Amino acid sequence: MRNLKSFLEKTFLGETLIEKIISSTNGEIMIYDGWFGINMRIGGVTQSGELVEKLWKISLSPNPYHLSPPKNCLILGLGCVNAAKLISRKWPGVKIIGVEIDPKVVEVGKKYFELDKIPNLKIIVGDAFRELKTQNSKLDLILVDLYLGKEYPQEAESEEFINGVKKLLNKDGVAVFNRLSYGEYEKPANEFA
User: Fold this and answer.
1) Distance CA 131, CA 124 (A)
2) Phi/psi of residue 176, each to 5°?
3) Residues in Cβ contact with 177 at an 8 Å cutoff, skipping those fewer than 6 apart
4) In angstroms, rounded to a whole number, what is the distance separating the alpha carbons of residues 52 and 60?
5) Closest Cα to residue 78, out of 119, 48, 38?
6) Which CA distances in Å does 155 have to 128, 130, 139, 160?
7) pTM over 0.90
8) What is the pLDDT of residues 4-37, one digit of tens each?
9) Who contacts 109 (Cβ-Cβ below 8 Å, separation ≥6)?
10) Terminal Cα distance for the chain, rounded
C-alpha cells in the first residue's frame, strides 16, 4: 500500500514526502523524492537537490570568474552536498572545508545525498561566523550560502564579515555569495550586491 501511495503522490504531485525531521536550528526539514531525485526543503525553500545543483552549476560554469583550478575551498553553509559535490567533480583533488551549523542537515546529507563520500571534504559542524574568524589559511574559493530556510543572516551582510571573507582569499581567489533574488528578496539581494 505504501508503494502505491508513493507512486500516486509522485504521479499527481510530482513528489512524495519520505521523511520529516525536526531540527532545533532549522525547524522542519522535509525530504522529498520526486521524478528528478531527492531534495531537501527548509522553510518551504529547496536547499539541496537537483534544482540547487543546477544553480551552483550555472554559478561556477563554465568559469565566469576566470578562476584557476582551486587547490582549496571553504563553503560556509555546506547544506547537504550540491556545491561540494560539484566542486569536487569540476576540480578533482581540491581540498574542501564545509561548515554547517545544523547537525541534522549533515545527517540528512549523509543519509540521502552521499555527503560523506565526497573526496577531500572536511565537514565542520559549527557556526560559520566563528569558523571564518578561526581560519588562517589563504583560500582560492569561498562559497557563502548561509540560509536558514528563507532567512539570510544580517551578520553575513556586514562589512566585518565581507572583509573577513576577503582577508582569507588568495590574491586571485574568488568568493561567491548565494542570495535569493526573486519577489520580496530581489531588493535586498540587489542592495547587497
Assistant:
1) 9
2) -120, 125
3) 144, 145, 192
4) 12
5) 48
6) 11, 11, 21, 8
7) no
8) 555 555 554 578 999 999 999 999 999 999 888 8
9) 48, 78, 79, 80, 81, 100, 115, 116
10) 50
For residues 7 and 90, give the distance between their C-alpha atoms in angstroms, rounded to a whole number: 35
Side chain identity at 57, as an amino acid letter? K
DSSP structure class, residue 148: B
- Residue 20's CB is within 10 A of a number of other CB atoms, namely 9
96 conformational bin, left if phi > 0, alpha if psi -120 to 50, beta if neither? beta
- The C-alpha atoms of residue 182 and residue 108 are separated, in whole angstroms, by 27
pLDDT tens digit sequence for 96-129: 999 999 999 999 999 999 999 999 999 999 999 9
**Residue for grid cell 528563507:** 150
**Please, are residues 84 and 98 in contact by the beta-carbon 8 Å criterion?**
yes
